[in-house]
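Work Package 4 report. The design task specified in the project plan requires that, given a folded chain encoded as structure tokens, an amino acid be chosen for each position. We show below one input record used in the internal validation round.
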């Protein structure tokens, strides 16, 4: 029995996630140095593929962060009784694989952070915000669009990301940082568009009508590129840092300044570039990794419609790990949770130091 407890103690020391009681019930992906952590069955909040915002269980421990990807650059973050939605694009239409829930199923949220105002990032923000009473945050061009959709503007916070903006919520702060929208080369995008049109079935009249109705809930304003794309630095009350960026554009001076101040983040949720070619998407992913220096990287915006191309993540992971072997990459399917013990974090010096070349 004594040897058993010695072994248990050693196991806890090795695991970055720690053993905060035997009832913890999940494996932090940093504990193995790999992305595949499947032993979450002991905590329903870290195993159920039901969003907490649609009625699923919270994690057992208040310091557990549960992250669920819900397509494109949408994530649900759950921490200490709070629900943060990153982007709000749920009712995507019949041309897309189903997410497993509808916008109307989202009954609870505290904050919605909108990276930018294109339809595939904000189309359901107004309805979800109205139903949940959540604070909705976005750039001026984004909140202008919300104002046309019967949003309660008392719930809306307009930010520029140009500094001096720190939003305080229960258990965490949010710093908006001005980013830049992706600008994939036109010749590459046009070539892929031609190939897709030549090899896939066109939308039916009904599908085209549905798509137009959804598109009307977003904006195509040109200001989105340089003024309307916001990255968010979320800092939990124990110091755990999350960087969310919902477009694969170049890193801005505002982002560089913020990262020079904080150093690194524990978790980066970052959109894959829309340039399709691996040589180009890898180049942008490496730029993001070098800027944010995360312990854990989770991709976003890599899925697509049934007749479109998903953006490959494996070449990104390969290139990033060749440069930083200690980086943990995690990619899960819709609504599949990833849980972190946030008590172990860079700010407290409890996470492993990643060696950057």
């Amino acid at each position: 029995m004594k040897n058993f407890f010695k072994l248990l103690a050693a196991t806890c020391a090795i695991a970055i996630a720690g053993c905060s009681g035997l009832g913890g019930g999940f494996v932090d992906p940093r504990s193995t140095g790999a992305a595949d952590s499947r032993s979450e069955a002991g905590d329903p909040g870290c195993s159920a593929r039901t969003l907490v915002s649609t009625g699923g269980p919270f994690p057992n421990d208040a310091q557990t962060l549960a992250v669920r990807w819900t397509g494109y650059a949408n994530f649900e973050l759950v921490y200490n009784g709070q629900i943060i939605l990153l982007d709000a694009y749920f009712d995507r239409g019949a041309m897309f694989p189903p997410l497993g829930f509808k916008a109307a199923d989202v009954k609870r949220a505290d904050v919605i952070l909108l990276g930018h105002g294109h339809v595939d990032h904000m189309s359901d923000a107004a309805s979800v915000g109205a139903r949940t009473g959540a604070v909705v945050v976005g750039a001026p061009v984004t909140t202008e669009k919300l104002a046309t959709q019967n949003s309660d503007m008392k719930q809306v916070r307009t930010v520029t990301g140009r500094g001096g903006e720190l939003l305080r919520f229960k258990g965490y702060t949010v710093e908006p940082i001005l980013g830049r929208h992706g600008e994939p080369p036109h010749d590459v995008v046009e070539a892929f568009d031609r190939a897709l049109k030549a090899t896939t079935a066109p939308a039916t009249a009904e599908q085209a009508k549905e798509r137009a109705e959804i598109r009307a809930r977003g904006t195509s304003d040109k200001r989105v590129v340089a003024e309307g794309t916001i990255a968010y630095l979320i800092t939990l009350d124990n110091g755990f840092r999350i960087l969310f960026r919902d477009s694969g554009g170049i890193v801005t001076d505002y982002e560089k300044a913020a990262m020079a101040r904080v150093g690194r983040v524990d978790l980066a949720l970052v959109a894959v570039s829309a340039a399709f070619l691996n040589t180009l998407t890898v180049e942008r992913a490496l730029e993001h990794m070098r800027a944010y220096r995360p312990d854990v990287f989770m991709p976003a915006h890599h899925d697509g419609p049934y007749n479109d191309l998903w953006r490959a993540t494996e070449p990104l992971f390969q290139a990033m790990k060749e440069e930083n072997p200690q980086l943990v990459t995690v990619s899960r399917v819709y609504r599949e949770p990833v849980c972190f013990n946030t008590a172990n974090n860079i700010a407290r010096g409890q996470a492993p130091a990643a060696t950057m070349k």
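Residues 278-292 form the longest helix (15 residues). Validation will be extended to a larger panel in the next phase.
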